[in-house]
Amino acid sequence: MIAHARRLHAPSRSAGTLVAAILAWSLTAPAAHAAAPANPAVGPNETALHPPKAVAIVGGTLLPVPHAPIATATVGLTDGRITAVGSAESVTVPRGAQVFDARGMTVYPGLFDAETHLGLTEIAADKNGNDLAETSDEIMPQMRVVDAFHAETVRIPVNRINGVTTAIVAPASEDSIAGQDALIQLYGRDRDQMIVTPDIALAMNFEGDVRRRDSHGALPAKYPATRMGVASQIRQALLDAQHYMDVRAAAVKPDFKGEPPKKDLKFEALIPYLKGEKPVVFGAYESYEVQVAMRIAEDFHLKVILNHVTHAQDILDTIAAYHVPVIVGPIYDAPRANERYDAVYSLPYELQRRGVKIALASLSNGPVSDSRNLPYAAGYAVAYGLPYDEAIKAITLNPAQMFGVDDQFGSLDVGKIGNVVMANGDPLDVRTSVRQVFINGIPIPMESRQTELRDEYLPLTKPGSRP
């Protein structure tokens, strides 16, 4: 993987030629080569106070996805959009643009996390700061994560400064129908600027954690206490919603007699998914869970994105035959007793080689669940067989395609939203440092709660400093 990155970074033009080109641009645009301030002033919600109208990122090795890499390239961003992509000699820097020198660096699309809890939880031990799931009932399609999304969470700056610019915020998988996901960008002065699509998909789950069980046996179990109960509960909810649709359609006909149906938020929320207008993200871990989930989806003609499939290695050919995309994860899960040691790590490769479109998500149980670790999950997948280019797509273009927003996100194409990352090495290498992130064409402040703590306490660790 590292060798691959070094090949990508081999320059095709001399540094002197590049400097001459930049100086030539400066003759026609005196303000164009002004360097970005090292520590620009930060405004409300960690935003830039005076963002430039136009930006040029020059001299880096470009990974445009899915196109071939471009050495010594230029990316132009104007009014939040990508306006130019190409070799340095073919792209004219806009007059007055703020230029970022990317020589020796890699420039690539902002990363897209396919499943997170960003904005729904702050400190796990504090119940007041957690809005992960509405567990008073198991069928909650009317729950919308945007109603609980906390844009000012300190977790968002922590994750975005490692290159994550776009994410799907999902409820926790504690309900069989948990609610509706939202698409966000990880930058904005308030929640309205950060929320891109409020109800982009429906979170459904058919897995053991959904069962309502008393682990100590002191109290009787609550329905559904078995996977059989979970399956029947989901089916009944979808049947009830279909009946609601039929009655509502009949009520608008001239010959209808009786009272029109009362508007029901639960059933209203399910309508676009039963019509196939939006995708259902269906989570399942075990092989038999995947098969039951897909049988339900086929019975009701749902548009499905499979989620997790972490321990379903024995039916990968069957999964490929479903012809649905898959969000793989968590990749850091331990193998089962009957699995190879590398069963989870090699899962992305095994699915991809069977023709399945895959995306990787950061969400998992444990300390690695932050979105900032998303590129390293892709790196693990490469180490266990996934082609490098496919790993990059799994955290950029593929999730954008799965959720139907690839016309805006996922690659460095002219016309798309200007989400770009500038780093000093391979995006999937843990040794790489992200130098600058651009969201909506704005160079965001590279600060977070963690960098503030670092800057405050690091000087105290130097010899001769006070403890």
Write the layout of secondary structure elements.
Elements: H1 2-8, H2 15-28, E1 54-62, E2 70-78, E3 81-87, E4 98-101, E5 106-109, E6 111-116, H3 155-160, E7 164-169, E8 177-185, H4 191-194, E9 195-205, H5 227-251, H6 265-274, E10 280-286, H7 287-299, E11 304-311, H8 316-322, E12 326-328, H9 347-352, E13 358-360, H10 374-383, H11 388-394, H12 397-402, E14 420-423, E15 434-439, E16 442-443, H13 449-457
Parallel strand pairs: 1-4, 1-5, 6-7, 9-10, 10-11, 11-12, 12-13
Antiparallel strand pairs: 1-2, 2-3, 5-14, 7-8, 8-9, 14-15, 15-16
Helix pairs in contact: 5-6, 10-11
Shape designation: globular
DSSP summary, beta strand count: 16
Tell me the name of the CATH class of the largest domain: Alpha Beta
What count of domains describes the coordinates?
2
How would you classify the helix and strand content by structural class?
Answer: alpha/beta
Question: Percent of residues in helical segments?
Answer: 25-40%
What name does CATH use for the topology of the largest domain?
A: TIM Barrel
Mean model confidence by pLDDT = 88
- Poorly predicted residue ranges: 1-37
The N- to C-terminal Cα distance equals 41 Å
Order of helix and strand elements from N to C terminus: HHEEEEEEHEEHEHHEHEHEHEHHHEEEH
Q: Strand-residue fraction?
A: 15-25%
Number of H/I helices = 13
Radius of gyration (CA) equals: 24 Å
Q: How does CATH name the architecture of the largest domain?
A: Alpha-Beta Barrel
Assign the CATH superfamily of the largest domain.
Metal-dependent hydrolases
Biggest sheet descriptor: 8 strands, mixed
